[in-house]
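Cross-posting from the modeling subforum.

Setting up a comparison between two proteins and wanted a second pair of eyes on the formatting. Protein 1 (sequence, then structure tokens):
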Amino acid sequence: MNYAKQTIINNIDELLEIGIALSSGNKTKKVLDLILKQARVITHADAGSVYFYKNRKLNFEVMQNDTIEFKQNHFGNNDSLPSVPVTCENVVGYAVLTDKLVNIDDVYKNDEFDFLGPKKYDDLTGYKTTSMLVIPLKNINEKVIGVLQLINAKDNKGNVIPFAKEYEKVFEALASQAAITISNFKYLNKIEDLLNSFVGSVATAVDARTKYNANHTKRLVKLIKKMVELINARNEKEFLNDYFTEERKEQLIMAAWMHDVGKIIVPLSLLNKGSKLGKRTSLVLQRLDYIKLKTEKKYWKRKAEQENLNKGFQKKYKQKIALLNNVRNLIIKTNNGEAPLNVKEKEKIEKYSKLRYIDGNGNNKRWLTEYERDCLMIRRGTLTSGERDLIEEHVEVGKNILKDIPFLDKLKKVPDFVYMHHELLDGSGYPDGLSGDQIPLEVRILTLVDIFEALIASDRPYRNALSIDKALDILEGMVEEKKLDARVFNLFKRNKAWECLEDYDQNV
């Protein structure tokens, strides 16, 4: 039995290991690296490469070389190695275009192909490329998706020799496995690209429903990425036991993109409600103007009919005009919801809402409807309890929307993070009133930066943007109330995480 056949038999276990790795769902990068390694072991190749084929060019994806102790595994972003044009003049291009395995005994004695690239590589590294075995990689549709290349076969004494013919069948089998791996990788990438595109479109659509929320999600994602970067820098002792792997990071970022998806069902009248009365503000003020106009008309009509008006009538007229002015001023003052409604203001609104007038159709109506009164009675903010309940439903709706999306396993917690992003550590959040350890670190980060971005945003309908210092004071107060995570807040504040936002204003 010759040396090549004995080598193949001795490495049956390694071949089986590749098959097991392919069926077990291991990382594509690791499997492709394993295939190249075993191809080199079986053929006693000193070096090898795997290329991906795209836009009529071949790009290095995995590269190994024992002699110069070089081993590079890199997917999709290798700027250090130039791509190889696919032409019949170079051997890898020829393999792609002709769909043929190529076995070269000595590249320096071969006139059939242009080996300028390998020779330049040799000059740069001091390496000597001699024998070469190349095969195109094809998917199930017989479409070329890459190339597998082995360099410098060696005998049992370490001398470089040509690749034995017996290796070619095994090499073809390994190439087939490599093609499966690359196809799976490309397919998975397409799925992820499609999902990311969908998520980005949905997030943009949700934010675009109202001009007051147009940039919220994009800014939130930037803050999330900065926080993950700070934690992974390992400079904060509070987070030495925490680390965000790439998958964990992707999951949190996806949750940030999707955190407000449930707002797709929230009426625009609520999302755009910049005051307690909202669109009814002008209606209420017009009603007061109408009552005032009728009062003045009645007065001047009586005065035209009577030379000397009754003093009691004049006094009532002046009192009513003053009352109407007071009501108008009170509504304008309290309608924006920025300052908390005090007891006296509340009593006045209750009193004024019971006053009545006769409309143009002779109907006896109140100055303020029940809904208008309820709106003006809001202690702080612009939403009634019923409106707030409706907005808070967005987390439940968001989870229901996301749970039907077939997320990859690495993103399976996204719906839960979206559902929990309004929970607070003291149990006062919603929707389930979770507390303490029930709330994972990802959600604690998402909650804090979501609140911060809302506080400093200049595009909110219900108030002006706060300064960074004022926003931090509010967050610190929530930390002291045990609502927000102190570790997350300290990391955020110490490192000025908000500086990742190009358009933030320190002195708003």
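Protein 2 (same layout):
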Amino acid sequence: MARYIGPDCKLCRREGEKLFLKGERCFTPKCAFDRRSYVPGAHGKSVQGGGGQRRGGTGRESDYARQLRAKQKARRVYGVLERQFRRYYGIALHQRGLTGLVLLQTLESRLDNVVFRMGFASSRDQARLLVSHGHFTVNGRRIDVPSMLTTTGDQIAVKEGSLKTTYFKELPAFAEARNTPMWVSRDLKNLSGSVLRLPERAEIDANLDEQLIVEYYSR
């Protein structure tokens, strides 16, 4: 499966804001965005913000540019490539409810995101790696597909054999400091949790603009 293998910090710089793709590192002075917040590329310092407006331009970002940036930001936050993101939009389009909200709920339902939300990983990238290495089970079955969509009632747990590894032995102390949203539950003693319901809009990242994403695909 195709995946992005470039620097995560370059994605934050392109969007003109921190997307917190590298977990705890984003809160330290080592964060590349704090040192070089301009857009990457040969002419990065002449570009104002993430919208791509170059020096000497009109200063007004087009509607298409704003829609594109909203879509790209959501893709990068969840670590999804274009073809897969378009498929998620198609799923949302054919379900009842607000298309934009259903799209975000679908993205939140990915197994790697649920593992991240439960505090079992410091970033979605790390959660994706842990899942792909087969460290988690869903309803008692070992799963190594990070893009698997979970549903209400699904039980997620660290595989029994993985509990002996150094990472998972130290995980409870790390995870205890992280808050979990109300739509998931977790048991730090047994390193398990469950999906209680779909997240509400207020429980999803506020810096994502789902309406602009819908407008982009509705052109």
